[in-house]
Design brief:
The complex is a heterodimer of chains A (123) and B (234).
Chain A: H1 5-24, H2 29-47, H3 49-59, H4 64-104, H5 109-113
Helix pairs in contact in A: 1-2, 2-3, 3-4
Chain B: H1 2-11, E1 14-20, H2 25-34, E2 40-45, H3 52-55, E3 62-65, H4 72-85, E4 90-93, H5 103-113, E5 118-122, H6 135-152, E6 164-167, H7 168-173, H8 183-193, E7 198-202, H9 209-214, H10 220-233
Parallel strand pairs in B: 1-2, 1-4, 2-3, 5-7
Antiparallel strand pairs in B: 4-6, 5-6
The chains are: A mainly alpha (123), B alpha/beta (234).
């Protein structure tokens, strides 16, 4: 099987990404499996470019490159949305934390004038 | 016995929540105008650069501080959580920039006493001086009214008016998750979802140069729409 330089470059990139993904996703078996499968498919497509073309024709797309492009767009979109969702969850947690702190250190009028603590509202 | 008396006193207390972000001296003026009403005033500082404690020194207010800036919706919810813990009978949302009229609070509380769960201030009801609202603002608010109607199913005469009053039932039912300005629309959808009885009352808004500059810019309405869509999705 004849190989081209671009294939080695792509394989190197995929390999590095795989190592990064597996290292980042500690204790997340599903996440790791998802990325490993994805990178396996990537490796197959790099080594056998004709395969994508055949798959593309099966799906009614002219070129393999187009198939990859379409998949890429869908993937980016889903990835972006899931990051956005994660972002909102983090923001929500941050809000709850800041609120908790604010309530815990609330100053009531009594506390400002006389040294009487009004614990009622802080709990 | 004494503690029971204290408890029952606490039970009919009204908490006026004033969310504040970098308001400076205007905050103290607003608070001073509220004090003669003899309600509890809760200032929620939303992570201002300067400590509002110094500005409010000597004034009998409850002061809560967000460690970082989260947005007006988050500040209101913090204030409402605090009021709930204190056993508030009702809360009033009141802007810190001095554009709301303290005299409207009694009207809002009267409407609550007449059976409303939520009272919303409106600049466009008969009795409100609608000419005070600048023309561009009026157009923008009409647009916001339609967006609110479409998103929340609540068709009101005004939109994004920060003056509101909630009774204990509404206080328990409403939990704001929109940290920034979309909370105004979120309140409407929660009112509808929780089947709260709502009433609009005419209120007066004073548009000073200061409040105009602090207030919403027209392009913020686009941000609010995006936030609303995001909230529907996630």
């Amino acid at each position: 099987m004849q190989t081209y330089p671009i294939q080695w470059i792509l394989l190197l990139g995929i390999g590095l990404s795989l190592i990064l993904a597996v290292a980042v996703l500690k204790n997340q078996l599903l996440g790791r499996l998802f990325f490993i499968c994805q990178f396996m498919i990537g490796i197959v497509f790099v080594l056998a470019p004709d395969l994508t073309s055949r798959l593309a024709r099966l799906l009614g797309i002219g070129r393999g490159t187009d198939l990859i492009l379409y998949l890429f767009i869908v993937f980016c979109y889903l990835g972006g949305l899931s990051i956005l969702a994660k972002f909102r969850r983090l923001e929500r947690n941050q809000t709850l934390l800041v609120r908790k702190l604010a309530l815990a250190s609330a100053q009531s009028p009594q506390q400002q004038s006389v040294a009487v603590s009004n614990e009622d509202c802080r709990q | 016995m004494l503690s029971e008396k204290v408890r029952s006193d606490m039970d009919d207390k009204v908490y006026i929540i004033v969310p504040s972000y970098n308001e400076g001296a205007v905050l103290a003026e607003t608070v001073r105008a509220l004090l003669p009403l003899r309600h509890e005033v809760v200032v929620v500082d939303d992570g201002s650069r300067e400590d509002p404690g110094e500005l409010l020194a000597g004034l009998p207010v409850h002061l809560l501080r967000h460690a970082i800036n989260l947005g007006q919706g988050a500040a209101l919810q913090t204030g409402m959580d605090y009021a709930k813990r204190c056993g508030a009978a009702a809360v009033v949302h009141f802007d810190a920039d001095g554009q709301h009229d303290p005299a409207d609070i009694a009207k809002a509380l009267a409407a609550l006493a007449n059976g409303a769960d939520v009272v919303l201030g409106s600049r466009f009801l008969p009795g409100a001086d609608r000419r005070r609202v600048p023309m561009t603002k009026r157009l923008l608010l009409q647009g916001a009214r339609v967006v609110n109607g479409l998103f929340t199913g609540m068709w009101l005469s005004d939109a994004h008016n920060g003056f509101r009053a909630l009774n204990r039932r509404a206080l328990a039912a409403i939990e704001l998750t929109e940290n920034r300005m979309a909370h105004a629309s979120e309140i409407l959808s929660l009112i509808r979802k929780q089947r709260l009885r709502v009433r609009e009352i005419p209120v007066n808004i004073a548009y000073s140069d200061y409040s105009r500059q602090k207030g919403q810019k027209w392009y913020n309405s686009l941000n609010i729409i995006v936030e609303l869509i995001m909230n529907k999705l996630f």
